[in-house]
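Sample pair:
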Amino acid sequence: MRQRLGAAACLLLAGSLPAAAQPPIAPGWQLETTGLLYGEQARARVVEPTGRLSRTFANGRALSLGLAVDAITGASPTGGLPTGQVQTTTTSSGRVTTSTADAVPTHPFQDLRGAADLAWVEPLGTLVSATTSAHYSQEKDYASIGGGLKTSVDLLNRLVTLTVGGGYNRDRVFPTGGTAEGLAPDTAARVPGDNAKEVATGLVGLSRIVSRRWLLGVTASRARESGYLTDPYKIVSLVDPVTQLPVAQVTEKRPSTRSRQDVLGSSVYHFERDVFYMNYRYYWDDWGLRSHTLDFKVRHDLSEDSWLQPHVRFYGQSPAEFFVFGLQQGRPLPAFASADERLGPLRTVTFGATYGFRLPGSRGEFTLRGEYLYQWLVGRPPTPTAPAAGTGGGDNVRRAIAAEDDGSQGSGQHLGTNIATFLIGYTVPF
């Protein structure tokens, strides 16, 4: 679910200005509040109120405190393949649900997450500033605590800004029901207790004021994760080598280390009335995953008190080396395997817009933002159809699930998910 919230953040991503472009802020207080509604078709739903209180001082120092609460409900894909048969399930409360033959298996869940962060900006002379930050978050099966330090230096008469920073997280993962052994039958006993996870990050960025209308920036970052990186609730289907239908399932298993890198380039150009933002990000890691992101926004002032900002985003990634749609029963198990679609050949397209306005006589600004995201896996084989009794399966069934196939032998079917996000915000200085 943490990755899902990351996806929500991507939906609302507003390409930030290079550091050299940030306007000076007058001393005083500022309150920012938002309410987020996030929903996936027949899957997860999130309600997230947030608040941030900031205080800027005359000497350039600044302090901010942020609070957030996530109420998460719905269902999440298990990683298993459709069975090709209609299934009826009765819960402990007596509720009866029926899934179609081509339905992707999911499991219901609900969670409540609380998070807090604190940041302090300290000027070190007239050209250097340092930002120290700390955060903590807690949910029923995950806790994270960490901090960071970032330093920015203005160069060449403040036309260039160099930023260097780093951070460290110490997380704990304590799955509901205990931790399963990787690639073991999903019915095997689980071990209670915590699992440690550490994340160390670093970044370097350079921004340049090219002209009074044009700003350019580039940022490179690296993260090193170690510890428990497996999703404790995901499974991988084992398929029958004859019928190619799923007959059993094992828990997934991922490596215990991961190195992530990315490079982000950004451009901001101010026309007579409009401001055009463009970002491109390239990401790669040692799990074999590669991704490209293109992000475009145009802010158009409708009047002195209102503006509109359309947004388009394209994202595509190649699968991790150990990503599979399923494993054939009877074959030796690999060292690692995951059927989590977030590690697969994923594509997303996002369309949205933000509308900002001020009410007459009000110092604060309201923002309304809506986003629609369509997400799909490339090359996923068609869902299976159960064979007729006594046939042992036919060619259509044998081709239905290409176990350990990367999609190159499948039909190229796009198994998509519709995702929508709506946000309302209010910012007021006082």
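Helices lie at 2-11, 395-398.
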